[in-house]
Amino acid sequence: MADNLAEVLAGFHRDVLLPDVQRVVADSERRLRDEMHGLFDAQAKHLDGLETEYQMIVAALRRVEARLEAVEKRLDEMERRMALRSEVDDLKARVEALQKKIAQLEAEL
């Protein structure tokens, strides 16, 4: 009788439980795989958006750098002009002092 009961139990397991467990596991695997694919697709889409934003930031930074370089050139030119103006002002002051000195010397003669 024990052998018969073991055979009946083994048959029940094989015919009833095992297919049901396999179906549940297969359904769980399918849902998990679908969920993982969905998450992967969402991450890929997010990464694509970040890549696009990164490219836009790089392009904007290049434009800023180009404008900054132009501003630096203009500042350098202005500094050069200011230095020349300062030299011209110094020369004018020296010429004026020399003219006064010449006027004084002519007055003495």
CA gyration radius, whole angstroms: 46 Å
Continuous helix count? 1
Terminal Cα span: 154 Å
Question: Kindly state the mean pLDDT as a whole number?
Answer: 92
- Inertia-based shape: rod-shaped
Query: What percentage of the residues does DSSP assign to strands (E)?
Result: under 5%
What key attributes describe this structure?
single chain; mainly alpha; 0% strand; 1 helix; 109 residues
Outline of this structure?
With 109 residues, this protein is an all-alpha fold. It has one helix at 2-108.
Structure characterization notes:
It is a single chain. This protein is mostly helical and 109 residues long. The protein contains one helix and no strands. It starts with a helix and ends with a helix.
Which secondary structure elements does this structure contain, and how are they paired or packed?
Elements: H1 2-108
